[in-house]
Amino acid sequence: MSFVSVFNELPLANLAQLARDATTVDVERALARSGHRSLSDFAALLSPAAAPFLEAMARESHALTVQHFGKAMRLFAPVYLSNECVNNCQYCGFSRDNPVLRTTLAVEQVMAEARHLVVEGFRNILLVAGEHPKFVSNGYLRDCVAALHTAGVPSISIEVGPLETEDYRPVVAAGCEGLVVYQETYNREVYREMHTAGPKKDFNWRLETAERGYAAGFRRLGIGALIGLGKWREEAIAVAAHAEYLLKKCWRAQLTVSLPRLRPAAGEFEPRHPMSDREMAQFVCALRLTFPHVGIVLSTRESPRLRDGLIPLGVTLMSAGSHTEPGGYTGAGSEKLHRTEHGKIVEVPAVPSEGEHCCATEQFVIADMRSAAEVAAKLRALGYEPVWKDWDPALSEKTPS
Amino acid sequence: MSENSSNLQIAGREFRSRLLLGTGKFASNELMRDAIAASGSEIVTVALRRADLSGQHDRFANILDFIDAKRVQLLPNTSGAMNADEAVRLAKLARAAGLGNWVKLEIHPDPHYLLPDPIETLKAAEVLVKEGFIVLPYINADPVLAKRLEDAGCATVMPLGSPIGSARGVETRAQIEIIIAQAGIPVVVDAGLGAPSHAAEAMELGADAVLINTAIAVAADPIRMARAFKAAVEAGRDAYEIGLAPRSREAQPTSPLTGFLER
Ligand code: SF4
């Protein structure tokens, strides 16, 4: 049995209704709960009726986070390997329907990007790529992971198109310990609308990815929903249900949850159900109150003001100084740049003409442009130790095959 | 007449302080260093996964630079290890990196509650002891496991008072009492002690030492809190060595069971 059958049985409609119509009494009951909070409690904490309790929620959320994670913030950075993609997610700059500049980094170029980040302090790197079996195979991922270890990166995760358990194994064996896959939206109808072509069309296959990764030996699992596609409270409840399931089924894996909000990208997709900053804070607190030990991730999609404000509320893992295009840190990969128009490759002139980009197109526009050093300094000023290294490869070292 | 409480002895070394300190969760390495000083602790544990083991002096993983290994016994811990193999590998790597042969053996396959795996811990302890390590295993408060680890040659056992970071105090009191009663090696109560009174309670029970991390690291003033724990540990130890008065001393007006002897 996988999460798909659990998900199909979930009383999502009831929980969603609670998240809309909870009363003050429901919220107070959820807040007063000592011990384990249920999905119903979570729904009540997300409700408009809980909004006036935000400060109280924030206080408990802060205390729980400090208790379990300390006054420390783990930092990571993404390295985009490729923006080739066979899917056409409507909200994504890399969609195959978008006529954008594309490239795939060679392993040495990935190393160059990683070395740049290592100098900045990062010891935890997330490898990101579009879904394209030809350009981003598991053999390529394995080689990137192995190379990064030699470049002084102890901790490596991937966020790429979902694979079979067997296909993950070589990547894990090379020393990759984290797997990140967002469902994007847990609403089947919206999902169908957003993903009309490519392997990503298969909702269930994606929903089972974290479990397949766990079976392959990943020790950290990241899940999340892209906020803005479906109604955010419903997405939040589904993510929480997924988290609850994974905590039981994949009990040896450290679980992290992300709440990325849609950002402007090529394709000009507009969020249908925006979530305000206040609601985002409420979401973070509700998550922490329900799952005291789960990691909460915050990327540079959000503004410095909001990021700084959310630090004490429950966030445990942040990216900083990020680029969301392949070669973004060093300019690597620009020699192979090409444009795809309706799936056809159009060569790009070696010397960019005026107004023409010189590097690959980014996935989305980031909002926090501060450098890693600036973010680290801000963390210290807020009373948090920036933690760069929290993993040693000796832990996950596999016997050479 | 006044005497100082006795020293703690582990693996042939003597320590005046019976307070061990964990170094995670501090708001800065500087604060951690000052809290160690204020606590008077002479045994300090560091998560190896946070430290630089490459020997390249990584300034982004320099937690060890803030611990004076000449003044305190460094106790590297294997936190993050999910099984015996990983813990053994990490311990050996630390020794090779010059961090000595003391190791706090922590194996918790569940990364959320961080509860120790008894089976893997025993396996790893057997290997590490044979390899010449001084092994201080973190365990659930399981008296039989404690004896098995003692038989395997461990230097101490470190049963938990309650889950890591829970601040619930000595919830495993009944089992800890048995472990202390049966132990031929020092018993260090580790984890879950959220207040100085918890530490004092463990010491009054006869624990040889306690290990504190979260309660000091995340306190609003870690330095003062370190001092508070120091005082509590000393008070608890003194009370234990002196011997507490029995709890119930109300005079019994009659002797229903032994009265017949008076007749
Ligand atoms: S979200 Fe991923 S799969 Fe979808 S178009 Fe973008 S890169 Fe491709």
Describe what this molecule looks like in 3D:
The complex is a heterodimer of chains A (401) and B (263). In chain A, 40% of the residues lie in helices and 14% in strands. Chain A is an alpha/beta fold. Chain A is globular, with a radius of gyration of 20 Å. Chain A starts with a helix and ends in a 5-residue tail after the last helix. The mean pLDDT of chain A is 89. Chain B has 263 residues and is an alpha/beta fold. Chain B has helices at 29-39, 84-96, 118-130, 143-151, 173-182, 196-205, 214-217, 222-242, and strands spanning 8-10, 13-15, 19-22, 43-47, 73-77, 102-105, 134-139, 158-159, 188-190, 209-212. In chain B, α1 (29-39) runs parallel beside α8, α2 (84-96) packs parallel to α3 (118-130) and α6 packs parallel to α8. The model of chain B has no long low-confidence stretch (mean pLDDT 90). Chain B has a single domain (8-262), classed as TIM Barrel (Alpha-Beta Barrel), CATH 3.20.20.70. The chains are: A alpha/beta (401), B alpha/beta (263). Chain A binds chain B through residues 66-72, 121, 123, 152, 219, 247, 251-255, 293-294, 380, 383-385, 387-392, 394-397, and chain B through 24-29, 48-54, 58, 60-61, 80-82, 86, 89-90, 93, 109-113, 165-167, 214, 217-218. Bound molecules: iron/sulfur cluster (SF4). The site of iron/sulfur cluster has 9 residues of chain A, from loops.
Q: Concise description?
A:
The complex is a heterodimer of chains A (401) and B (263). Helices cover 40% and strands 14% of the residues of chain A. Chain A has helices at 3-9, 12-21, 24-32, 39-46, 54-69, 107-120, 138-150, 165-173, 188-194, 203-207, 209-216, 232-249, 277-290, 304-310, 372-381, 393-396; strands at 72-82, 101-102, 124-129, 155-159, 178-180, 220-224, 254-258, 295-298, 317-319, 338-341, 344-347, 385-387.
Distance between the termini of chain A: 31 Å
Structural class of chain B: alpha/beta
Helix content of chain B: 25-40%
Amount of helix of chain A:
25-40%
Largest sheet of chain B: 5 strands, parallel
CATH H-tier superfamily of chain A:
Aldolase class I
Please state the structural category of chain A. Answer: alpha/beta
CATH architecture of chain B: Alpha-Beta Barrel
Q: Order of strands in the sheet with the most strands of chain B?
A: 5-4-3-10-9
Q: Round the Cα radius of gyration of chain B to an integer and report it.
A: 20 Å
What's the overall average pLDDT of chain B, rounded?
90
The CATH topology of chain B, please?
Answer: TIM Barrel
Query: How many H/I helical runs of chain A?
Result: 16
How would you name the oligomeric state of the polypeptide chains in this document?
Answer: heterodimer
How many domains comprise the coordinates of chain A?
1
The unique ligands bound to this protein are: iron/sulfur cluster
What characteristic shape of chain B results from the CA principal axes? Answer: globular
Task: Estimate what percentage of residues of chain B fall within beta strands.
Answer: 5-15%
Give the uncertain stretches of chain A in residue-range form: none
How many extended strands of chain B? 10
